[in-house]
Amino acid sequence: MNKEIYARIRNMFDVPQMQNNLRGLWVEAMVCEILGRGCTHTGSDWAAWDLEREDGLRIEVKQSAKQQSWGTSTGPPRFGIAAAKGHYPDGKTYISNDSGCRLADIYIFAWHDGQDQREVSEWIFYVVDAKLLPNGQKTVGLRTIQKLTESVTASTLRKRVMQMRN
Q1: Which residues have C-beta within 8 Å of that of residue 126, sequence separation ≥ 6?
Q2: What is the reported pTM?
Q3: Which three-class secondary structure state does DSSP give residue 123?
Q4: Rounded Cα distance, 58 and 104, in Å
Q5: What are the distances in angstroms from CA 105 to CA 97, 132, 148?
Q6: Hey, how many other C-beta atoms are within 10 angstroms of the C-beta on 108?
Q7: Residue 164: count of CB within 10 angstroms of its CB
């Protein structure tokens, strides 16, 4: 039975255009692999950031794609940037974010405008210091992100993140 369950899960991810909810998990895992040793996936239910570097740098990963599992998106790409209302640092105890500030230090925005979302080389990344993101906004468009920073490819993403502050 386990073999069949794993096959179903593999089939959900092993398609050129993934469902939105699954693609987010894929991109978080992909970025964690790109960043390599010293980076841990911390995203889970009610987590306030997705990845954490061994020096404590907290990273939120957001993604969007032109090709959706249901067809081609015609609207401009948008990414969620609302500050977490709180989080569970130990998985049990809730800590409210009364400050309303974003809890991640940097955001990595991943944009896909290719044909196969499984292909790491087809993704473009934007690394933004959380302090540069518009305050009080719940979403941000790709054009705004492009005004804040230049894009990097998967081959240069690790170097760009390593340059970010702690």
Answers
A1: 108, 109, 111, 145, 146, 148, 149, 150, 151, 152
A2: 0.91
A3: strand
A4: 5
A5: 15, 10, 15
A6: 26
A7: 15
**Other C-beta atoms lying within 10 Å of the C-beta of residue 41:** 17
Of the candidates 12, 7, 44, 3, which has an alpha carbon nearest to the alpha carbon of residue 117? 12
Q: How many CB atoms lie within 10 A of CB 31?
A: 25
Q: What is the phi/psi pair of residue 31, to 5°?
A: -65, -40
**Does an H or E element contain 22, and which?**
helix 20-35
Looking up tokens 């468009």 gives 141
Instruction: Return d(Cα 128, Cα 137) in angstroms, integer.
Output: 15
Taking a C-beta distance cutoff of 8 angstroms, is the pair 23, 12 a contact? Answer: no
> What pLDDT digit, counting tens, does each position of 117-141 carry?
999 999 999 999 999 999 889 999 9
Residue tagged 């955001």 (tokens): 107
Q: What is the CA radius of gyration of the chain?
A: 16
